[in-house]
Amino acid sequence: MYDFLEESSRLMHQAAKIGEINPDVVELLSGPARVIGFRIPLKMDDGSSRVFDAYRVCHTDALGPTRDGTRISPDLNLDECKALALVMSVKHAAGRIPAGGGKGGIAADSGKLSRLEFERLCRAYIRHLRPSGPDCDVPGADVGTGMQSMSWMLDEYEQITGRHSPAAVNDKPPILGGTLGGYEATGMGVFEVFQAAAEQIDFKLEGARIAIQGFGQVGSVAAQAFHEAGCKVIAVRQIDSGVYASEGLDIPELVKYQEENGSLENFPGSEPITNEELFSCDCDVLVPAALQGVITREVAERVKARILVEAANSPTTLDADELLLERGVTIVPDVLANAGSVHLCQMERTQGLSDDYWGSETINEQRRMRLVHSYQQAAECAERHGLKSVRLGAWINALKRIEEAILTRGWC
Predict the structure, then answer these.
(1) I want to staple 382 with a disulfide (CB 3.0 to 4.6 A). Which of 189, 240, 272, 393 is the partner?
(2) pTM exceeding 0.90
């Protein structure tokens, strides 16, 4: 069984050894700096009461306030939050963002709650979250949350403190001090980092065959970017359905079809495809954009793609990663590929603190520039250490920045 926390910790120790990170720093980073667990009592619409388990994990704040990530999902547990907080620390540091990794959420199925019940749950989460605030710990959106959820959370925080503080919560709408470009940030970032990786290996985009697992906000935006660049998106898989067309799918029409039907099933001009078939299909680029741990060593043995772009968090196990690298597959790792929203949150914070809001052109250019620069730095680090793995290059860069901050502060 895939153990997300164990895999993330193993990767950190591997990168720390190669990068010769101070052992005391490694020991400090081996666990979160702060873990908050609480139970939320909620009055339901019918007058009954339910209790929901909730968490917040702050991995390290050596570089700055811990930020981002509030999941609401039925299977959420503390170990998942710990792993995600660690990965978030690395994403921030690898992107040269002055922030630490924070992650948390509520174990709940929002689909079984009314709108009012869901709002009360989001507001209660903020009331129970201590400490929080723009200079301490800043929650953002993740699986099961979005702009509306974060709007409720920001409003609750401001009601409690009695002051307007747009930088206290990330991923809110522009009308409340959020930033433009939130919806497309991660998906477009996936394509932009892929483009940087493709240039380094002289990979031609025109006509490249793309397979994407996951067609939500990230996968669908990435698919449209690939399509507009002249690639052929031949396979797409969503939770309950998947479609394949050897000559390429009409992505704009597929997006409309899913919006109208709630599924990809029976899309005209396509044939059904399973997850297993998608991972092993004859494609040039494979984009896992759904869950962690889906590409195991067994799955990797069947992968035909030349490039793997990790749009999801930790979709590839370390054993699979090793196998794919041995076969010459270029892996664009999650901490770089799906960091578009992380950079956007930094821009959102800057705008909120300065009360100076930017246009879409500035935001899109800043996002692309930061993502490409982070990838190039990670690739250069990997080359310096004689590594095939850009992932390790990114983690080594991140750990060195965190190490410098910790040692400068005198914590070790």
Answers:
(1) 393
(2) yes
